[in-house]
């Protein structure tokens, strides 16, 4: 998704929030403006303290479960791009933990075929409010996804590693060289997708890479 189309999608979504009553991101119950979940759904949402500050580490805003999991599924698979601005803003508290540490915010890319099918990259829509909040340059095309791989959620860790090996490549190597990059995605499970993105960024000579995710899913044991 181009920067122009990403900004346009967010602008349309924000306008929709102004002209229509806000509704719970999980159950569609009418709620107050600027609120993400109704009281009942909010009770099932858990903020995350999970993080890994090592090189190539990550920070999570929420645990994956309850109403947050429902909202993410709706965003990704039920054509609910209108949820992205509010879900992106929900990441800002976690984003504060990394303020001042990065030069670029880069969303995990979709393959062009999947982008065409879905009509938007949910990671890019989440990343835009984060970049604006941090005052950091937004680079939605810095990474490319070369292969349309099967969905990671259906695979165990070993197959996840194979599934994303060599899948990502840097597009704007000159911009990435020496840059400190914050990757943004919706869900982290084992971290294989984020690690593959980090490998591509480091190969392009990015000086530091960290990931910020909306939700951290409990690890899935291999069968």
Topology:
Layout: H1 3-19, H2 39-42, E1 51-52, E2 58-63, H3 66-77, H4 84-90, H5 92-95, E3 104-107, H6 112-118, H7 122-134, E4 137-138, E5 143-145, H8 157-164, E6 168-170, H9 173-176, E7 180-188, H10 192-203, E8 208-216
Walk me through the structure.
It is a single chain. By secondary structure, this protein is α/β, with parallel strands linked by helices. It has a single domain (3-216), classed as Rossmann fold, CATH 3.40.50. 39% of the residues lie in helices and 17% in strands. The protein contains ten helices and eight strands. The chain has a six-stranded mixed sheet. Strand 7 (180-188), helix 10 (192-203) and strand 8 (208-216) form a beta-alpha-beta unit.
Task: Offer a few descriptive terms.
223 residues; 17% strand; Rossmann fold
Q: In percent, how much strand structure appears in the residues?
A: 15-25%
From the 3D structure, determine the CATH topology. Rossmann fold
H/E topology pattern = HHEEHHHEHHEEHEHEHE
Q: Taking Cα atoms only, what radius of gyration do you get, to the nearest Å?
A: 17 Å
């Amino acid at each position: 998704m181009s920067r122009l189309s990403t900004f346009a999608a967010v602008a349309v979504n924000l306008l929709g929030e102004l002209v229509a009553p806000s509704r719970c991101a999980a159950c569609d119950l009418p709620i107050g403006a600027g609120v993400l979940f109704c009281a009942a759904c909010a009770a099932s949402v858990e903020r995350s303290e999970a993080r890994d500050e090592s090189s190539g580490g990550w920070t999570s805003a929420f645990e994956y479960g309850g109403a947050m999991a429902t909202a993410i599924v709706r965003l990704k698979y039920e054509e609910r791009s209108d949820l992205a601005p509010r879900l992106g803003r929900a990441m800002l508290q976690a984003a504060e933990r990394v303020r001042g540490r990065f030069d670029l915010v880069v969303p995990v890319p979709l393959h062009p075929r999947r982008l065409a099918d879905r009509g938007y990259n949910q990671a890019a829509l989440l990343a835009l409010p984060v970049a604006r909040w941090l005052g950091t340059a937004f680079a939605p095309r810095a990474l490319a996804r070369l292969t349309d791989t099967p969905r990671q959620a259906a695979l165990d860790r070993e197959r996840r590693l194979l599934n994303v090996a060599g899948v990502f490549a840097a597009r704007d190597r000159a911009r990435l060289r020496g840059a400190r990059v914050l990757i943004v995605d919706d869900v982290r499970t084992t971290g294989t997708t984020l690690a593959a993105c980090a490998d591509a960024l480091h190969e392009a000579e990015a000086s530091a890479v960290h990931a910020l995710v909306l939700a951290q899913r409990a690890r899935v044991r291999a069968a």
